[in-house]
Input
Amino acid sequence: MDKSEIKELLDYHAARINSPEFIDDDPVQFPRMFTDRRDVEIAALLSATIAWGKRSMIIRDAQRMFALMDMQPYAYVMEQGYEELPHMNIHRTFFSENLQHWLRGLRSVYSEYPSLDDFALSVGAGHSEYPAVRLAEALNERLSIANGGRGDSRCLPLNLNTTALKRLNMALRWLVRRDGIVDLGIWSSIREEQLRIPLDVHVIRTATQLGLLRRKSADRRAVEELTEELRAMRPHDPVFYDYALFGLGVAGDKVIDEPAGF
Output
């Protein structure tokens, strides 16, 4: 398959999968439940934080997590309701102590900025070569200060030189992309063309089959390698192809055998 054929295939499947029907089976449904931008931001970060494993389990556990907040994430953060949480499992290896760590840091941010978008703007995320990395660095600083100098890799990775930042890149796709179908596009501090692909096992599988990814390690270098390939096909919006790469990977389709006309 040459590059033009790959682009045609990805365009077709991304447009097919990027539809309202996608929302019900994806954690993007949670930030979409809210209208206040602060609720949306918190829901996006927290939903993405626990987005690993089976999607049905992610959605079940996210529902429980937001129920703890009475479906009012911003109020819950600012009123410090999380401090009353007993030790409990939120999702797999993410526990109430990890959630508390996250929310203390977010309270620190919202105590000073009207939104996380304003915070991202203030730390220069959109002016960085790697916006997600710069934002993660700034958020980790806030989280550390709010938690007595401790970091927590269950909230955000600490190894920012090597991590693929899959979960934060996913949250940023939701917050930045603005085609009005699945992603919400409420941020202006980072532009669509600056986004990086959320690199999960499904994306890796499809991208490797298509010859778009040669690197074996799921790390930051792999993210940059694949994003550059996607940017060559769609410079203004490379992570649009996340829908095709992820969706085909989940379906288990052998994309290299895709028939003509799809």
